[in-house]
Design brief:
Layout lengths: L1 H31 L48 E11 L31 H10 L10 H8 L4 E12 L32 H13 L10 E6 L4 H10 L26
Parallel strand pairs: 1-2, 1-3
């Protein structure tokens, strides 16, 4: 019994000593914390989260990670594959290619101030330069250069541009999917219109008829459809909830249809 008591006493003493030492160290450490601790070199994160929102980035922030010879197909081809890409330009009944329009023609304000419209017969050439030739509009970047950099020189892209072709429908007739918050589609499709049209089906048919090809990719490795108008995110987000707080703030140029007193309809 005396042996056990002696052991218990030794353990209590050890705990007291450890507590005293720990308290002494903590007290000493707290007393030595520099006033500028947040900026102390030893307290900085190993992987600092230095980032810039993509909306704020400019071409000045781009760091090239590929040789200049990869920027266009005159310099080099992919070591494994050189894709043949058909770029198929498509317009809608109510929306031509924006580059053919004068500055500010679209309700979104595009094309921007100072833009000189591109004649429709030159649209295919303009888009070829945009995708295949380094210039001021693509920031000096090309589809070939992107794929060469992304694949470490293994995959390149040759571009051939077709069109523009005018689709047999309006823009919104191709842009209302029947799912999610758009279901059912009929509730969102204007009366008299058909919102079940498929851009690839109609656009592909126009392209194949033009080049005399019955089906498939017609000898190309892939088809890249480029349509007039704007992408979904910039339409409903950048020019919707980011611009207007309530539906009554939306001007007539954007919609919705107004009641006789000028207010927005409840439904």
């Amino acid at each position: 019994m005396r042996e056990k008591s002696r052991h218990r006493g030794a353990r209590r003493f050890a705990v007291l000593v450890l507590f005293a030492v720990t308290a002494s160290i903590a007290s000493s450490a707290s007393a030595e914390i520099p006033p500028d601790a947040a900026n102390h070199p030893l307290l900085q994160p190993i992987d600092a989260q230095n980032w810039v929102d993509q909306g704020e980035l400019t071409w000045d922030a781009y760091t090239q990670a590929r040789p200049d010879s990869w920027n266009d197909t005159t310099g080099s081809d992919g070591s494994v594959s050189q894709y043949r890409t058909a770029v198929i330009l498509l317009e809608f009944q109510d929306q031509p290619m924006l580059i053919t329009q004068p500055a500010g023609a679209h309700p979104f304000g595009n094309p921007q101030s100072g833009w000189e419209p591109v004649p429709r017969e030159d649209v295919a050439d303009w888009y070829y330069d945009y995708y295949a030739v380094p210039n001021q509009y693509n920031g000096g970047q090309t589809l070939h250069g992107y794929w060469m950099e992304d694949s470490h020189g293994q995959i390149g892209v040759d571009v051939e541009v077709f069109g523009p072709y005018t689709l047999p429908g309006k823009l919104h007739e191709y842009g209302i999917p029947d799912g999610g918050f758009n279901a059912p589609r009929e509730a969102y499709c204007p009366q008299g219109d058909s919102c079940t049209k498929n851009l690839r089906t109609d656009g592909g048919a126009l392209w194949r008829a033009d080049i005399g090809c019955p089906s498939g990719l017609c000898g190309f490795d892939n088809g890249f459809y480029v349509s007039a108008g704007h992408d979904e995110s910039s339409t409903w987000q950048e020019f919707g909830e980011m611009m207007f707080q309530t539906r009554d703030d939306i001007p007539d140029a954007f919609g919705p249809p107004r009641n006789p007193d000028g207010s927005a309809p409840l439904n």
